[in-house]
TrEMBL record:
Descriptive protein name: O-fucosyltransferase family protein
Record-linked PANTHER family: OS02G0726500 PROTEIN-RELATED, RHAMNOGALACTURONAN I RHAMNOSYLTRANSFERASE 1
Family note: Belongs to the glycosyltransferase GT106 family.
CC per GO annotation: chloroplast; membrane
GO terms under biological process: fucose metabolic process
Topology with respect to the bilayer: Single-pass type II membrane protein
Keywords: Carbohydrate metabolism, Fucose metabolism, Glycoprotein, Glycosyltransferase, Membrane, Signal-anchor, Transferase, Transmembrane, Transmembrane helix
TM ranges: 39-63
GO molecular function terms noted in the UniProt entry: glycosyltransferase activity
Annotated localization: Membrane
UniProt keyword Lipid biosynthesis, yes or no: no
Keyword Glycosyltransferase attached: yes
Pathway in which this enzyme or protein is active: Glycan metabolism
Amino acid sequence: MDVRSENSISSSNSGNGVHVVRWAKLPGQVIQRTRLQIWFIRVCSSILIWTCLVQLVAVGELWHPKLFSGFSNPINGSNRVSNNVISIPAVPPPPPLPPPRNYISNGFLKVSCNGGLNQMRAAICDMVTVARLLNLTLVVPELDKTSFWADPSDFEDIFDVGHFIDSLRDEVRIVKRLPKRFSRKYGFQPLEMPPISWSSEKYYLEQILPLFNKHKVIHFNRTDTRLANNGIPPYLQKLRCRVNFQALKFTPSIEALGNKLVHILQQNGPFLALHLRYEMDMLAFSGCTHGCTVEEADELKRLRYAFPWWREKEIVSDERRLQGLCPLTPEEATLILQALGFDQNTQIYIASGEIYGSEKRLAALRATYPRIVSDCP
């Protein structure tokens, strides 16, 4: 028998005459078999441990995502680098909505704002406050389309209507439109009226609220300055501010345009936004013609007569100016800026509509402050 054989054979006779053959294992075979067993045990143990670890991470991310981020981020990060993919940070969830205010509505308030955007914005703040005071349901306001500017935009074209409704749900109930039973299509006629200007909460509680018991829907067809600025309870004044600075949020496209404009201005250094209030409709409405030619004064007067809701027709410009009711002319605004210490390198953005008189009236301002920027032609 070759000594290199794995097994050796031995034989012997048993006592009963039977010949017994025995196989004996050599020491090398025993060692090799032991190593295979150890290797097998290690492989099985590794597979079991990794399986348990993967299951643990999967279950842990369901309950505590941040706790196990260290296990998953390196793997995901290596994939992103190898595939040249840029990871986008997750958008934080919106803040929870305030709980709705629970009240029995006394009726529906429909409003049609009038004037320019600033005037309509102030009116919206007032009308939300009136609806809160009288426990009404406010219909999303209508914007003026027949004013001097003739802007065809609706509320949702300028403001985020969803945010407007949701952000005020703990104060007043707001709907996008009247229920069908109150539509003109079904023969319903709401009461149309302009509330008295500069009225206190007493006027609305004692004279307007009883009308809702009878008509259920009232349409305020004029909303400019219909609520007193002073003398009303602090909680109503706070609501005014909340509507103006939180609820009336511009649409994303307008927000993006505004941010782009500010970014362009900031690239050229600090800037001053100046609203001269020197547009054609402002001068015609106020009757202020200081510095205008005779032809320009006549044009402004004709415009004032062309709009019937501008009640004052004959206005003496000098008297109005002495009363402090006229805007500063561009020449006077130049002197004010100089007195406030702004030097000639100041970048000025004209934040208004087209200046009446155009470049002729801006000549003094532009000569003193050549870095003037305007988005109007």
